[in-house]
């Protein structure tokens, strides 16, 4: 099955700096890559996603890039703010009629210091 | 309000006592799924369902059962809970396989 690895496991940045989280996946059939943010004690919430026909996607201060050849994708957060502090999860899915078998990475704890 | 509702939020039970965690969504989503979250292990999929009466195993199905008799409901059943099933459980739903899941608020289960 799919295996998703995520790095780093913890990341500490100064407010205003950029943060980058990287993920690799093993199944070349995966074609859907969402990112989730989980604040302490809360549910994971979808913040951005990318599909395999696109190399990059941006939404205000966050962006995702996808390199299908290398089987890795990244989350970029610019101008970080204290409210960006949370655990971020990447995920990968084959996303076809066989089911939505979404496999998650191990998570990155991002701490933004004021 | 569009949401995924899980109950209960917290549950402490004893080894071997059957329990059910309910999950309901009001978004008419086809896909539903159960995840468990453990420290250092991230989110692992237990079971998922593509539609009514269609379910399949995820990564960690042992010790769990599910059913999907109605589109909106997807209960998780632990027939004989054991301490290693102590975890935070999330139910989630999505439109189809190429859309992200919407998660419920979670159920923190402790088996003693």
Task: Explain what this protein looks like in three dimensions.
The complex is a heterodimer of chains A (114) and B (112). By secondary structure, chain A is an all-beta fold. Helices cover 0% and strands 54% of the residues of chain A. Chain A has strands spanning 4-7, 10-14, 19-25, 32-38, 45-51, 56-59, 62-67, 72-77, 86-92, 103-104, 108-113. Chain B is mostly beta strands. Classes of the chains: A mainly beta (114), B mainly beta (112). The interface between A and B is medium-sized, with 29 and 26 residues.
Short description:
The complex is a heterodimer of chains A (114) and B (112). With 114 residues, chain A is mostly beta strands.
Beta-strand portion of chain B reads over 45%
Written as H for each helix and E for each strand, in order along the chain, the element string of chain B is EEEEEEEEEEE
Which bin fits the share of residues in helices of chain A? Answer: under 10%
Largest sheet of chain B: 7 strands, mixed
How many alpha or pi helices of chain B?
0
Q: Which spans of chain B of ≥5 residues are poorly predicted at pLDDT below 50?
A: none
Mean pLDDT of chain B: 94
Query: From the structure provided, what is the oligomeric state, counting identical versus distinct chains?
Result: heterodimer
**Alpha carbon gyration radius of chain B:** 13 Å
Distance between the termini of chain A: 41 Å
Q: What percent of the residues of chain B sit in helical stretches (DSSP H or I)?
A: under 10%
Q: Name the average pLDDT of chain A.
A: 92
Number of strands of chain A: 11
Which strand-content bin applies to the residues of chain A? Answer: over 45%
Structural class of chain A: mainly beta
Identify the overall geometry of chain B: globular
Class by alpha and beta content of chain B: mainly beta
- Global geometry of chain A: globular
Number of helices of chain A: 0
